[in-house]
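Quick start: read one record
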Amino acid sequence: MSTDSQTAQKKAKQQAESDQSNVKVFWRLWKLFRPYWGWMFLGILLSLITILANVGLMALSGWFITSMAIAGVAGVSIDYFSPAAGIRGLSIARTASRYAERVVTHEATFRAIAELRHWFYLHLEPLAPAVLQNYHSGDLLSRIRADIDALENVYIRIIVPTSVALMMGIFFIFFLSRYDSSLAWVELIFLLLAGVMVPLLVNTLSKKPSKKKVSISTELRTSVIDSVQGMGELLIYGAAEKQAQKIDDLSKQLLEQQAKLTQLNGLSQAILNLCANLAMLGVVMLTIPLVTNLGISPSNLVMLALFTHASFEAVMALPLAFQTLPETLESARRIFSIVDAKPQVVEPIDDSPAPKNTEIKFHKVSFQYLNQQEKVSTIDASKNILNKLSFSLKSGNKLAIVGPSGVGKSSIINLLLRFWEPISGTIHFGNHELSQYKGDDIRQYFSVVSQLSYFFNSTIKRNLLLAKRNATDDEVEEVCRVAQIHEFIVSLPEGYDTWVGEAGFKLSGGQLKRLTIARALLKDAPVLILDEPGEGLDSQIEKAVLNAIFDYKKETSIILITHSQTGLDAMDEILRLG
């Protein structure tokens, strides 16, 4: 894909992510949490009980202490058993409800996040590799891990605090109005200031650093992955120090944005504490005349003051909730931009047909790689990688596709495996059009030795068993002998239990190629595709491996994609491209 095309694709992707409004994004998130509404409402209820218990504890304690002091001065008796029991009960209720609230809200969050990962993967898998090739692996990792993790804020840091603050605010104002409307007005004014004005201001000031934080985090993660996976190249070309400096600069930029957000949070908490103290002071000033003129008990003065101050616990989490909101929405946009992407290949609605044989037919197939913005009706035929290609491969025969790099040899594999659709022409497999097969179904009939094969950081045996999980040790050893790699493996101290390292970095290119061949042979598929199987091997080993493969897979249809002459003498047909 050209640089201009990649740039256009990147801009279109960024535009699609920014076009989603905050309300729309949040509504979509809310619907994703729908299966866990029961858990969510239980968490909100427990949060309400916790705050009520805490505010009640403060208010009752203030009233009780003041009443005891007044009774002592007046020399009268007072029932202290009931208030003491109430204080103990509220203390126990606060502790128990706080613990239960933490358990329930975190359980709901973990369940939702686990389901979100599964949901995201189900949307991600159909996009590979055609759409996902436009994304860096580090960027995808950020979306799968960091962006999904950020969505936990939706419930635990946004929905719960906001819901609790709204309901508790109404209750607190109503409670104070039972004593005097002026007290309720003081509570309302300062709650609006602390619970609405300050969070909205924090939200506005947080948008820019939050967006930068997500962007820098993604770039930093991408750079770290590039460093790990490309450490050999970086060291060879002397670019390791420059890459390390880039990572250091990104780390400093990330810390700078995090510091800005931390300062905002600290400032907002200071303002909220000030509002709580001012509200308490206002209530005290207004209650003093009520005690004098209306005969309200002096102990109620302390109770109302402490009640007012404690009531601000309900809004203390709102600034952080609104500060977290921009980062959460930005992460959600990045998730939805991938979820909303349309796969290049449209799966059929009906079940895949049963192939009568494994015959493959290409009839006037034209193809070129298109990005999501390009349409078939507007393509330039001169840019076709394959232009009206026709060939056939009968069951059990061997076909060689020969040509230099860039003539579309590997594109044939992408078309056969339904990773891409041809622009024109038809492809048949087993006397049925390829478009009638679902991707997962058609791939069961093919085993591919590709040029880019991934090895996980695990043992040789486990990497081989990816092709056939229930394969026996004898089967594994047999395919390794065919691939001319068994003797090397048994020479290792741990044999087949040797760890290959991340992406197989502990092994050479030739060794990985032969393990790739062994893994492909282990899969019991009627069609074997060998894409440059001799890459990384010397000519003698390449010839020995191919001869062993042809002998081992006598009844299997084989497509050999190569630019060399090795193995061509065993082919039933040779197709030359370019």
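The beta strands are 360-367, 386-393, 398-402, 424-429, 432-433, 446-449, 527-531, 557-562, 573-576.
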